[in-house]
Amino acid sequence: MIYDDMPVLKSLKEYAASKVLPFHMPGHKRGGIFQRLGLEYLMDNIIEMDTTEVPGIDNLHSPQGAIAEAQNLAARAFGAGRTFFLVNGTTSGIYAMTMAATKPGDKILIPRNAHRSAVSAAVLGKLHPVYMMPEVDSYMEIAMGIEPKTVEKALEQHPDAKAVLITSPTYYGVCSDLEKIARMVHDKGKLLLVDEAHGSHFVFHRSLPISAMEAGADMAAQSTHKTLPSMTGSSMLHVKGERVDIEKLKFFLQLVQTTSPSHVMLASLDAARYIMENYGHRLLDDCIKYSNKVRKEINDKTSFYCLGADKKDSFGIHDIDPTRITVNLKGGGISGIKGEEILRSEYNIQVEMSDICNIVAITSVADDEASYMRLLEAISDMDRWSRKENIGCNQAKPPNSIPVCLMPPHEALYHEVESIEVEKSQGRISAEMAVPYPPGIPVIMPGEQISRDVIDYLRQCTDIGIKVSGVLDPEFKNIKVIK
Ligand SMILES: Cc1ncc(COP(=O)(O)O)c(C=O)c1O
């Protein structure tokens, strides 16, 4: 087989042939939705359409034709003043909006559990990140929303901060109170940036949480590819109001993106907008109905718990995305990681991700009733035959406070570093980050001082099998510190 000699192509071909039911991104779920809605041309001609900026094909970095028109249509559909298409994911949107809102040396307020691109943006922009602690649900063992009062306090303590970045919704589908936060941030004359990677669909249905644009954010970056039918890595950055310097933003968008964008990805963004404008409400009706049915059945008939509206108004949760299926398996004695493995090996279903207690399934307008029911049956069946083991959830107690920051992350990363035993690192400045899952909150960041509490907590986490991501040594015996 010629494909044996092309490992990437081979792996993709095999995954497609396996007919795994995808409850993961991208939201087009293998493109079936394009076929159903008469857009099969996009599906069938990807390589033929792949081209560069020849006459008749617009330029992403100074659009005047089709791309400008498509971005305007998107701005209207997503309730923005301006919309920029992105070919390097929300990651690039977070970089560009953060740097457009600040200048080197500025402070920015970000949630401690923000996606790593927010911290990377602070590194690129030479910023001083000031972290705000999200609320943690001790049963689900995950970080939830940011309370407006946490933002208020951070704004009072750091009146010189230039902007506030909020992640809403989170990976688990949890939304913070963006309207309230927007009012507070604007009252202090600062910019509100929202990492809305998982919320591109919100604006298309009134039963979904309010979108960041509607809530009053100045900029919001959305991974269209996660929850809407566009290609992996295609995203949008929306801007509203007069507070953002658009020319500066355009400069940074050019800086963080390739000069050879994929026009097929751009076309898929255009198609996603078209589908949602024309069919979105009806398709989301189904998506919400079937997701809620799966949630209710799991909660009524299994020993698992599916995150839902009952958690609203606790743990910083202002709203919940009903289309996100986040299931805590510990009541059934299965770890999230094991649950993900079982769903794949026994039921040919792949979920988006798992942590020690939870699995997360991404649903989208491309899923049909049969897919939801297959997921529900698999989860219910898994509950019936699972051995009720006592899974090792995170009994470790995290340190009460965020470590002292002795240098901003960009300085720490350019410093000379050395690798030393974790046990001997007390008092040293970390050159890496350590993020135990759960709850997904970094315990130490580059530039922060390692305390005894931090060492003890991370040691307990690794002892009970909690995955500590971000660290270079997977066994966590050594840590890189500033020399
Ligand atoms: C909360 C959050 N923000 C940002 C990103 C980055 O998005 P992208 O993959 O589109 O660059 C992710 C990716 O998983 C995410 O979960």
Key features of this structure:
globular; binds pyridoxal-5'-phosphate; Aspartate Aminotransferase, domain 1; transaminase activity; 17 helices; Aminotransferase class I/II-fold pyridoxal phosphate-dependent enzyme; single chain; PyrdxlP-dep_Trfase_major; 38% helix; Aspartate Aminotransferase, domain 2; Ornithine Decarboxylase, Chain A, domain 4; alpha/beta; 4-stranded antiparallel β-sheet; 3 domains; 483 residues
| Low-pLDDT runs | none
Fourth CATH level, the homologous superfamily of the largest domain: Type I PLP-dependent aspartate aminotransferase-like (Major domain)
Helix content: 25-40%
Give every kind of bound small molecule, once each. Answer: pyridoxal-5'-phosphate
Strand order of the largest sheet: 2-11-10-9-7-3-4
| Class computed from helices, strands and strand pairing | alpha/beta
Give the overall silhouette.
globular
- For the terminal residues, how far apart are their CA atoms? 52 Å
Using the 3D structure, state the CATH architecture of the largest domain. 3-Layer(aba) Sandwich
The gyration radius over C-alpha positions equals 22 Å
Largest sheet: 7 strands, mixed
Question: In DSSP terms, counting alpha (H) and pi (I) runs of 4 or more, how many helices?
Answer: 17
Strand content bin: 15-25%
Count of the separate structural domains: 3
CATH class value of the largest domain: Alpha Beta
Number of strands: 21
Overall pLDDT: 94
